[in-house]
Amino acid sequence: MGGRKKMWTPKEVTALRDGVRKYGSGKWSGILSDSKYGRALKARSNVDLKDKWRNLGAGTFGSRKKKVLAIVAVANDNDGEQEIVPASPVNDDDEGLFASVDTFILEAITSWK
Amino acid sequence: MGGRKKMWTPKEVTALRDGVRKYGSGKWSGILSDSKYGRALKARSNVDLKDKWRNLGAGTFGSRKKKVLAIVAVANDNDGEQEIVPASPVNDDDEGLFASVDTFILEAITSWK
DNA sequence: CTATAGGGATAGGGTTTT
DNA sequence: TAAAACCCTATCCCTATA
């Protein structure tokens, strides 16, 4: 029995949230029947949508303002070994560049936990 | 606060093994409901059974083996924009690049101490 | 038969204790 | 440091109801 739990991807969550905005909470089959959202949710059943929506509402994902928790990068050291290191802006001018990375990682974190 | 941990007795382990032999791995509540095995496992919950079966190392269930570290890199593209790219092959599916990179980042963060 | 809501169970990662 | 026991919870299952 491998991989019983299929974690929701940010893409799927977005499709679900957009679907609920259009059809309303509880219209799971309707959302799946919509080509725009159903395509991204192909691997999910109407019950799956219901369960995920319940979890989103009870949890902290919500619509709150998100905070950056961490920025990481992978670098090669002198021995050619790859390692994960904290990545932060070198100076103020770099903040703009890292902003998009922050958002990217933040989306990953919030969808993960 | 002493004695928080209740070590499993040989009698309990035997009941668990016999129960799994009859009902199968994953049927924890079923095992507890069976008078033959549930009696010896009265002090254990279904989650306890799951946890014990896992650290008994039985089969492929609940392997604690660590996943291969996913690697990502932060790079500058031709326009000078910063972006995160996979540093190892991505298994292409219909989720697209975003979902794949997202997974890499999640695993990187998970492994990051 | 199809669909949703709600309660319950399981899988897998994380944490604590020995 | 390792291993056993325990905790957290996203995901999945069962079933009453319409």
From TrEMBL, chains A, B:
Residues 4-57 form the Myb-like domain. Residues 1-56 form the HTH myb-type domain. It is found in: Chromosome; Nucleus, Nucleolus. It comes from the Eukaryota. This is MYB transcription factor. The lineage of its organism: Eukaryota, Viridiplantae, Streptophyta, Embryophyta, Tracheophyta. The chain holds residues 1 to 113 of 234 of the full protein.
